[in-house]
Design goal:
The chain is an alpha/beta fold. It is 53% helix and 12% strand. It has a 5-stranded parallel beta sheet with strand order 1-5-4-2-3. Strands 7-8-6-11-12 form a 5-stranded parallel beta sheet, sandwiched between helices. It has a two-stranded antiparallel sheet with strand order 9-10.
């Protein structure tokens, strides 16, 4: 076999987990938008260098730009080899890609191949990967979804976490989206990924599931924060069997205060989010809720939010969007202790 071996995306994807390292040779800003699962970023040109070379190409000429660019690329490749790969054995097999599978990944793959490693270069680069992901996510997943339903604060995420901990297959869209899926759902200091990165994460999880076993997922809406759930996946979820969690309202209040401590301890941040509910509930009610927030009356405020906002909205949505909800399997939790969630998870995982 002659290396670097140039492979098309349809040949690479089935073997993706066979590579010892997946190397993204693009710039850090390109990598941040999205990248192949588990890829590490080893840019042959960083963002500033790309701009400098591109400007020189337009203003001076291609020959001069290529000379300067080649020097930068050579230094960057040498740095990556010295800091990351000097200890790699002869049979270390990396996959290298850039935007279109051209000069950037080609330069890196050529040097690695000359050293003697069996390197593979992705023909078409990230662009080919992205096109393939779009096609894959347009297909209806042939998976046995079990949709965890329940009004806000009933512990759907805790149940998913517990199910995953005991070995069940779980697709946690809120975790992948870095958002809890409501007006108060943004997670402090953790921005949401890009839409493309979200979709790549979903594809990566879906491809790993065993179709003969159930996949547990929460009853999400079409959007999780600012991110859209792929339509084919959403349609499949909405047609799937449901599991209805039932938890006492007092316990739901306690759970929400535990899970949203960043708001419970920060009245200005909570009040700013409550402002978004003004069109639904009117200025007078929002100001009263903001007053309760300022006064530290969190249990009363959360209880009112459940009764007046979250529960009616959720029940309207669940009955309208999930076809099998009226036949849902009921799981009633005695409390919100870890033991109760573990018992429920074990019951569902056995069935």
């Amino acid at each position: 076999m002659k290396y670097p071996e140039l492979l098309k995306i349809e040949d690479v994807l089935p073997r993706l987990d066979e590579f010892d390292t997946i190397i993204d040779a693009r710039s850090p800003s390109e990598y941040a938008l999205d990248h192949l699962p588990n890829a590490i970023n080893c840019p042959v040109l960083d963002d500033e260098q790309r701009i400098a070379v591109g400007t020189m190409y337009k203003q001076v000429g291609s020959f001069e730009a290529k000379k300067v660019g080649a020097a930068m690329v050579s230094k960057n490749i040498a740095y990556h080899i010295e800091t990351l790969w000097l200890d790699k054995p002869r049979d270390w097999k990396p996959l290298v890609y850039c935007w279109r599978g051209g000069n950037r990944s080609g330069s890196l793959a050529h040097v690695l191949a000359k050293i003697g490693w069996p390197v593979v270069q992705l023909d078409g680069g990230y662009k080919a990967f992205r096109n393939q992901i779009n096609l894959e996510l347009e297909k209806t997943p042939e998976l046995d979804f079990r949709v965890i339903c329940g009004t806000t604060g009933s512990g759907k995420t805790r149940l998913l976490d517990t199910l995953e901990a005991i070995g069940a297959q779980v697709l946690d869209l809120e975790q992948l989206a870095a958002h809890r899926g409501s007006v108060l759902g943004n997670i402090p200091c953790q921005p949401q990924p890009t839409q493309k990165a979200f979709e790549t994460s979903i594809w990566d999880r879906l491809r790993r599931f065993d179709p003969s076993l159930p996949v547990f997922v929460e009853s999400e809406s079409k959007k999780v924060g600012d991110l859209r759930v792929p339509a084919a996946l959403m349609d499949r979820m909405r047609a799937s069997p449901c599991i209805a969690m039932q938890v006492a309202r007092g316990d739901r209040v306690k759970l929400l205060i535990e899970d949203y401590q960043h708001f419970a301890c920060n009245a200005p941040a909570l009040n700013a989010q409550l402002e978004f509910l003004t069109p639904l509930h009117g200025k007078e009610k929002i100001e009263r809720w903001q007053g309760m927030s300022n006064g530290g009356q969190m249990p009363s405020l959360v209880d009112e939010l459940l009764v007046d906002h979250y529960d009616p909205a959720y029940l309207r949505s669940i009955n309208r969007n999930f076809a099998q909800y009226d036949k849902a399997q009921v799981v009633e939790l005695a409390d919100i202790s870890p033991e109760s969630f573990l018992a429920a998870a074990r019951q569902l995982h056995r069935e």
